[in-house]
Design goal:
- The chain contains six helices and nine strands.
- By secondary structure, the protein is of the alpha/beta class.
- It has a single domain, classed as Vaccinia Virus protein VP39 (Rossmann fold, 3-Layer(aba) Sandwich).
- The strands form two sheets. Strands 3-2-1-4-5-9-8 form a seven-stranded mixed beta sheet, with helices on both faces.
- The chain starts with 8 loop residues before the first helix and ends with a strand.
Length: 220
Amino acid sequence: MWGPEGLDEIEAELLGPPEDLKGKDVLEIGAGAAQCSRWLAAQGARPVALDLSHRQLQHALRIGGSFPLVCADAGDLPFADASFDLACSAYGALPFVADPVRVLREVRRVLRPGGRFVFSVTHPIRWAFPDEPGPEGLSVSGSYFDRTPYVEQDEAGRAVYVEHHRTIGDRVRDVVAADFRLVDLVEPEWPAWNSAQWGGWSPLRGGLIPGTAIFVCERE
């Protein structure tokens, strides 16, 4: 699943037709509990699930799966050059790093020539609106161009959660700077069947402004 709208890979085929995934080496970055890797393994792919959070990978281990789990920094991937056919990231890693180009360059390095990297992030336009699912989330409350990170701190003042804002133009320039070719930029529309409300996502907001941006990149 690429985002809260409900666009799934079987429908989107952003990594390619599901039948073509069999036997492919795929790296999932910011895997969390490795839901995407579990789906990839079911298609016959050979996924590797990577996340910085040991706790998230413990969840993945408890759920189960016959693929490797790797605890590592997305900006310093512990793999040899040209190790993977494909890479993917659904809301993982890239929103939480101050230097996304470093991550993108690392992903390109471990991809084989012609390899594809697909990643989804919160649509940048959402940063200009309150993170509310109802009508109060439809009025602009800040500047789209304000790139100040969102930071949550504990009682000692230590950052426990940081998310970085990049405009659409920033993201495109990051992809180009990492020497990827941008194949597509997908902005999923909210489908009529999806009545779920989660965080700032809802049918009301989803019918008016995009919530997710999916970047399809290739190493030429």
